[in-house]
Amino acid sequence: QVRLVESGGGSVQAGESLRLSCTASEYGFRNPFMAWFRQAPGKEREGIAAIYLELARADYDASVKGRFTISRDDAKTTVYLQMESLRPEDTAIYYCAAGRPYRTPIEAPGYDYWGQGTQVTVSS
After folding, report:
1. Is the pLDDT of residue 30 over 90?
2. Looking at CB atoms within 10 Å, which of 38, 101, 105, 119 has the fewest?
3. How many angstroms separate the CA atoms of 12 and 24, rounded?
4. For residue 17, which of 71, 87, 72, 115 has the smallest C-alpha distance?
């Protein structure tokens, strides 16, 4: 069983930045991808960023591309999501996931392990 622990959420003003962290109890190999998803109130969960750990290859949803950056620190078994130029529509609970996605890296099927989520609130 892989445990994922997110941290770094909070409340900010539009235009500000936040960095989320996700530390995994088990890292890579059997779960070569890690990703960030988010779910806003009344909306479905959406994948926003993913990273193929071995090559550090990243994929992004169009809604965050150019503003968010996913990265990893192998020594700390941690994946980060640096969020810049935050907007009110980025308000959501952000979840970290690990696994082997069946489809694209930012689609949920295949991610077997999930964190508990961290709240990000952006006010205008």
Report:
1. no
2. 119
3. 26
4. 87
91 pLDDT above the threshold of 90? yes
CA gap 106, 119 in Å, rounded: 20
Tell me phi and psi for residue 13, to 5 degrees: -90, 155
> Which distant-in-sequence residues (6+ apart) come within 8 Å of 17 by Cβ?
82, 83, 84, 85, 86
Beta strand spans in the chain (E): 4-7, 10-13, 18-24, 33-39, 46-52, 57-60, 68-73, 78-83, 92-99, 111-114, 118-123
Of the pLDDT bands very low, low, confident and very high (cuts 50, 70, 90), residue 29 is confident
pLDDT of residue 84: 98
Angle at 119 between CA 116 and CA 124, to 5 degrees: 165
Name residue, tokens 């968010």.
Answer: 68
If you average pLDDT over every residue of the chain, what do you get? Answer: 96
Cβ pair 103, 110 in contact under 8 A: yes
